[in-house]
Structure formats: structure tokens, C-alpha cells
Amino acid sequence: MSRTDRAGRVIAAPPATVYAALLDRESVEAWLPPDGMRGRIERWDPRPGGGFRMVLTHLDPTGDPGKTSGATDVVEVGFAELVPPQRVVQRAVFEAEDPAYAGTMTLTWRLAAVTEGTEVTVTATDVPPGIDRADHEAGIASSLAHLAFHVETAG
Q1: Best CA proximity match to 6, nearest among 112, 137, 134, 110
Q2: What is the pLDDT of residues 27-45, one digit of tens each?
């Protein structure tokens, strides 16, 4: 059975600014890793059919081991759909030997103009069963908080 996880927040910036941060390599490397992780992008191709490869390193892997190795999560992300400045659809596959992390998770980032800036909602579908729902939703919320900080303090 497929699972869907969600998170959202309002970011005090216009949709075009938020959208640009979703497709800029340095920006994604800065804001995407959730609390307790750092990220490094190894490949970047921001177009439909393109994508990126990111290595996420757990700063303290003792309580939260990685999916790929003891300290890392490696994820291949493809850009399935880019609709500026309203939506980015990604397909993410973790490199992991454990079948609980197998499969392709779809992440849909929706951006809607609101009085305060941009309402960003992230919907993750077909989440692998090995990913704890509460941890995943907290991780998405953490990434959204980093995205907000990144775009609200830029410039």
C-alpha cells in the first residue's frame, strides 16, 4: 500500500523567488538537508528529465543510521515536472540494500501566492515503508524551515 506524507509552511518571499531556490544548485545544497544532516550535490541538471544526485551525511549517525551506509543517505532525484513558479515534481530513489527503502518516492512541491508571501506544500507519495512517517514529516518541515530562512535572508 502506498503512503503519503505532507508538510507545508508560508515563506515570506514571492513564488518566483522560492521557485528559483528549488532549482539552484547552491541553494538546494544549503537548504534541503534537514536538521542533523549536511548535503553535497554530486551531479546537477535542472530541467525536465534531468535531476541531481545528493549525498546526505548524518552529523550523528549513532541514533539515526543512514540508508546507504552507516552515516549517509545517497539519493538520485529526477525532475519529472517543472511549472514555474507553481510546481516542481521530483522522483527520488535512495541507494540502499534494505528493501524497506526501495522504490521511487514522488515529491510534489506546490507554491501558491498568499498575502504573506508563498504557501509551500510538499506532498511525498509512495514513501518507502522503512522511512518513519513522523521522522519524514519532521524532516520535510525542517527542510522547509531552512528554505524559508534561505530565501527570506537572501539579498
Answers
A1: 137
A2: 999 999 999 899 999 999 9
H/E stretch holding 147? helix 133-153
**72: CB partners within 8 A, 6+ apart:** 55, 56, 57, 58, 66
Residue recorded with cell 552507516: 70
What is the Cα–Cα distance from 55 to 12, expressed in whole angstroms? 29
Entry pTM: 0.93
Yes or no: say if 3 and 133 are a contact pair by the CB < 8 Å rule: yes
Domain spanning 4-36+78-153: CATH superfamily: START domain (3.30.530.20)
Q: Which three cell numbers stand for residue 145?
A: 524551515
CB 42 within 8 A of CB 53: yes
